[in-house]
Amino acid sequence: MLQDAIGDEELFIVGLTVSDSVMPKVTVTLDGPTGLAIQACATISRRLARRIDEHYGEDSAYSLEVTSPGADQPLTDPRQYQRHIGRSLALKLTDGTEKTGVLTAATPEGVEIEEVIKQKTKKTTLPAAFYSFGDIQEAKVVISFK
After folding, report:
1. For residues 90 and 98, is the Cβ–Cβ distance under 8 A?
2. In this structure, is residue 127 part of a structural domain?
């Protein structure tokens, strides 16, 4: 039902939560190769609300939010990485290490980054290294205001 309501085959679901309260809040987080425009959120929200009303009845009480991941949100789906090639990523690996560097490639299996190491006043860029998605605990785009 959810994918049908989205309509756009390039968009994909990166999060779905339903709060456990008197009036449940349904939050659907979507993304796509070029992000998600606010107009697409509104259109999908109307479609999804119609589907929920058809399935559960128009008297069901809920709040619906359709959104895209914020700039500070971790990347959770391998399809999100492609559009961030050329940007800096901060990776937390499952072995506890952290890496920061420029994303140079993204495949269905993992990512390649050129790690930047800071030593006092000097930055050194290491050759690109590959990290599989299974080794990545969390990945965030490093926001820069240069």
Report:
1. yes
2. yes
Structural domain contains residue 72 = no
- What does the pLDDT profile of the chain (146 residues) look like in tens digits? 555 656 667 889 999 999 988 888 999 999 988 888 899 899 999 999 998 888 877 777 889 999 999 888 999 999 999 999 999 999 999 999 999 999 999 999 999 999 988 888 888 888 999 999 999 999 999 987 76
pTM, entire model:
0.80
Q: Domain end: 67, 89, 111, which one? A: 67
Answer for the pair 45, 66: CB distance below 8 angstroms, yes or no: yes
Q: Which domain, by its residues, includes 25?
A: 2-67
Please compute, for residue 24, the number of CA atoms within 13 A of its CA located in the half-sphere on the CB side.
11
